[in-house]
């Protein structure tokens, strides 16, 4: 490990996302809602939003 660590001075963007009232069919936790999909933070299950 000879590589030097580069420091990232960029401020981290705090991304707030609403939690949908949608639950993971695999583990039952509430899924996070994104612009085009829902994702489970536990098992990474992803469900794409269907166009209306
Ligand atoms: Zn899950």
Keywords:
binds zinc ion; about 50 residues; single chain; mainly beta; about 0% helix; elongated; four-stranded antiparallel sheet
End-to-end Cα distance, whole Å, is 51 Å
Beta-strand share of residues: 25-35%
Structural class: mainly beta
List the ligand species: zinc ion
In short:
The chain is mainly β and 52 residues long.
What does this structure look like?
- There is one protein chain.
- The chain is mainly beta and 52 residues long.
- The chain has a domain at 19-48.
- Helices cover 0% and strands 29% of the residues.
- The chain has no helices and 4 strands.
- It has strands at 19-23, 30-33, 37-39, 46-48.
- It has a 4-stranded antiparallel sheet, with no helix packed on it.
- It is elongated, with a radius of gyration of 16 Å.
Protein topology:
Layout: E1 19-23, E2 30-33, E3 37-39, E4 46-48
Antiparallel strand pairs: 1-2, 2-3, 3-4
Zinc ion binds at residues 24, 26-27, 29, 40, 42-43, 45.
